[in-house]
Amino acid sequence: MALAPTFSALAVTVNDGSTTDNLIQILNSSPSSQADSAVSLQVANCPSNCTLTAVQTGDNTLALFALRSAWYATDVAPTSGVYTVSAGFEPADVANRNRGGVIGWLSSSASNGIVLQVVPEDGFDLKSFRVSVVDFSADNGNDNESLTHLFNTNGSLATTDFTSAWSEPGTNYSATNFATFQLAFSAPTAADLAGLSNATAHVTAKVFQGTETNGTPIQLSRTIELLTDLPLPSLGNHRIGYYAVWADINFNGSTIGYLDNLAGEGGVGTVANSLPSVSISNPAGGATFTEPVNISIDASATDSDGTVARVDFFNGATLLGTETTNPFSFTWTNVAAGSYSLTARATDNGGGTSTSSPVNITVNSSTGGGPTLNIALAANGVEISWPTAGYVLQMATNLASPTWIDVPGTLLTNRITLTITGGTTFFRLFQQSAPAGPRLTILLSGNSVIVSWPAQVSGYRLQSKSDLNAGTWTDVATSNNQVTEIITGSARFYRLSQ
Fold first, then answer.
1. So what's the pLDDT on residue 245?
2. Which phi and psi (to 5°) does residue 195 adopt?
């Protein structure tokens, strides 16, 4: 017999196991289960025999409960509460911790769904096929995966008995081959409602492996039949997908298993892409600045049926910059006097775009428009003051040079005394906005440090200095937004500058 995933001829293929392009991941949001680990879905062995591989990496021994994950389809979804979803799963190892299967009745807004999975070997849990509810927003293991909202068909609470929500796999199940995990959701019957008056669906779970000589799929073990009172997920938030979990927090993660052929039948269909929403949260409309100024532009962008792939920032029709990671922020540097109309345009993973309402701001000329510097002699120095904090005092010895040097420690004050060193010195105030832009990552590697920032970000240069009280930053030569420097034992500070 063939041991590949088997499906009804009427099923609609949602994902054929060769790509992750139409899949969105949902996983535990609680830090108590993430620790330093991560779960990903990778495509391997292409193009001849593409396989989706669920992998957990990192150190999860500090986690309090397992990091559960699902990948749901973006372009095909349930259109009603009556449908069947199937997926193939093969454990990477015949071990209690290598679990996976299929998820349905998944609400992307409530972050919960009903799963059918295999525990392929005895251990701290019995070898079994099992139906359960996974709540990805839970902050403890008991609520993360449980039998809450599941009932036997007579209305009694579902249990872990092999006559209720769990089933023995049977002697014919081979954990070294793909099996098909199938969840069917149908309207509760009159008998169902007599047992559980608020039932929202009748849940039927089956597992198949191989086919008879006439092509009929071979069912393993018994059919699990339950009721649920979980609300029917709203249209647009109702999803189906693959499911996998490395169910052991005592050992670091590894390959969980292989997933293939996510399919739907009945009330499933193509989903129209919902456009993202985006707005500018900073600066506020009507805000005024004084030139020259760096303006931090912050945007809030979300997508109800996927992810935000990028946010572009505009002044009128002119593109100022792009951010591809949340938080979506961009710093517009050295803005001259004028009136400006700022907008942000969000693009989602389906290519849909939305543009924010414009935010109008004004940058005033520095001539007579900003705070006045007061300079007075004080013993062997000069005392320089201005009306309010929030400005950086800068100095130069030659007005023909475009370079002004920050006077350290002046952003949070409005007064400073400097020693007279001779020669001519010019001073000005520079309005400083909140810092934004890409984040530096600094990693130890032996006796060196690796300093980097996102490869897709352009227009920045790395600078360093060994004393924060020094006024000058020195450019550091980098390649592909990265540099490796030997640790010398003295302090060293880094920043990005445009």
1. 97
2. -85, -35
Find the CATH number of the domain harbouring 177. Answer: 2.60.120.560
119 and 76 belong to one structural domain: yes
How many structural domains comprise the chain?
A: 4
336, part of any domain: yes
Beta strand pairing call for 288-290 and 359-364? parallel
The helix or strand, by DSSP H or E, that contains position 33, with its residue range, turns out to be: helix 31-34
Pairing of strands 145-146, 128-135: antiparallel
Do 332 and 448 fall into the same domain?
Answer: no
pLDDT value of residue 1: 36
Question: Are the C-beta atoms of residues 306 and 72 closer than 8 Å to each other?
Answer: no
d(CA 66, CA 141): 7
Vertex 441 angle, CA 435 and 443, to 5°: 150
Asked if 43 and 17 touch (Cβ cutoff 8 Å), the reply is: no
Task: Determine, yes or no, domain membership for 7.
Answer: no
- Compute the distance between CA of residue 31 and CA of residue 273 in angstroms, rounded to an integer: 31
For residues 158 and 65, membership in a common domain is answered with: yes
Amino acid at 158: A
pLDDT of residue 488: 78
The Cβ of residue 348 has, within 10 Å, a number of other Cβ atoms equal to 25
Q: What is the pLDDT of residues 90-103, one digit of tens each?
A: 999 999 999 999 99
In a domain, 172, yes or no: yes
Same domain, yes or no: 346 and 490: no
Residue with tokens 């535990």: 28
Q: What is the pLDDT of residues 152-197, one digit of tens each?
A: 999 999 999 999 999 999 999 999 999 999 999 999 999 999 999 9
Q: What is the Cα gyration radius of the chain?
A: 30
> Whole-prediction pTM value?
0.60
- Taking the C-alpha atoms of residue 149 and residue 132, their distance in angstroms, rounded to an integer, is 9
The rounded Cα 202 to chain-centroid distance in angstroms is: 33
Per-residue pLDDT for 470 more than 90? no
42: which residues sit within 8 A by CB, 6+ positions away? 20, 52, 53, 55
Supply the pLDDT for residue 305. Answer: 72
Assess whether 68 and 211 both reside in one domain. yes
| Domain of 356, in residue numbers | 277-364
pLDDT of residue 433: 54
Q: Under a CB-based contact definition with an 8 Å cutoff, are residues 218 and 210 in contact?
A: yes
The answer to the question of residue 281 being in a domain is yes
